[in-house]
Amino acid sequence: MNIKTFKGEKFPLELHKVRVVQKLNFPPLKRRVKSLQEAGYNMFLLKNDDIFLDMLTDSGVNAMSDNQIAAMNQADDSYAGSATYFRLEKVVLEFFNKKYFLPTHQGRACEHILAKVFVKPGNAVPMNYHFTTTKAHITEVGGVVEQFFLNEALISDSKNPFKGNMDLSLLEDYLDKHAANVPFVRMEAGTNLIGGQPWSLDNYEKVSKICRDHHILLVLDASLLSDNLYFIKTREEAYKDASIKEILTKISDLSDIIYFSARKLSFSRGGGIVTSNLAAYEAMRPLVPLYEGFLTYGGMSIREMEAMAVGLNETYDFDIISQGPIFIKYMVDELDKLGVPVVKPAGGLGCHLDVAKFIPHVNHHQYPAEALGSALYLVGGIRGMERGTLSEQRDSLGVEPESEVELLRLALPRRVFTMSQIKYAIDRIYWLYQHRELIGGLEWVMEPEVLRFFYGTLRPIGGWENKLIKVLKKDLGQEE
Length: 480
Ligand code: F0G
Description:
By secondary structure, the protein is an alpha/beta fold.
């Protein structure tokens, strides 16, 4: 919750206490320089022992509740038909108000199944915005992604509370012409790549109607649904008095198929697909034992399944789902006050720096967001995630598309960081902003063909990092 102090200061307050802690390393500058070189300037290749604040993602690293940990100890193991699975199935089906559940090992496994079952070569999948793994699975089977986002979705300095909305007229026009070539429409809750931006329930309802009018399935990616639920309740007038459960049921009823990464939704691990459409369920079901594991675990451990069941039930609790968004808003607002370009309004998932404005002198093909990520790691031992051109994929001719946005995402895994750690991150980002002219671009050393951002290696162009380190030592009196 947010409080206002007697002196008039406003800040978010943690509604949880810390009972288990993990010691963190603060790697000295010399070590950070070496780790970054060893990691080929790729944030994914850094070792977390060499990181002070790991803001790479909130995926699978949110802090679990005492009840989740307790449930994990009650897990019942069995290759087929474990009591744990049936506990989970009951919770999932109640949560989404659907009839059938297919468990998977994580979110992208659902995308794999959906793409394999529904997308044929040449098909197009319209969506509010793509996610990296979603797009990779659709293109892998010969399909293409069509994005119908609002113009404002890509404008970082915006007041639009629902930048994740689908552009309804673009969707309708497209379906009027191409419905026969569209296996499903996909909406992503808490739209990840544009800064964790939500859509409104009003927009979702209209998307659903357009899909029904065209007899096309509506698929919801619910990985970041808990943030989106929070934003519907706090930003959409019509739902301010609705309970989270009521909003959730309405969303579920408008969706034909819902899938999710439980590494995000439910603060656990694993994933799954739900539907009440028997034909769709039967078409997808054979792929679970083939790629994931038997139908009563789908590649998940029983401990993960128990934690997911409790985590989903905790999603009904407004205090729990508001923790992320209010701390993210604090970080965004403070940076904004300091003039640092950030994605506004604050979304879910994390604080997103607008790199195109932060270092406009570094062009798309020199991967500015990864370069800024490298610089922030050097400066503060903080790891963020590039969300820009590096996360794109070359086309069949090898041409590299320029990403519509260049963001550095600083994820705030829920309940993990303290206020002083967030203040520290704000300070280091501010320092970097004051010295932004020192940051240069990156070039490839080794570039993989698919999902290159995960394990490709790079190097700084022209040795800019040395100058940055020199000024950093002088200004912040860094070690050695
Ligand atoms: N959909 C969305 C919206 C996601 O954010 C993710 C993962 C996935 C699908 C895939 O799920 O990782 O369980 O296979 N996002 C992570 C992130 C990787 O860091 O934002 P997964």
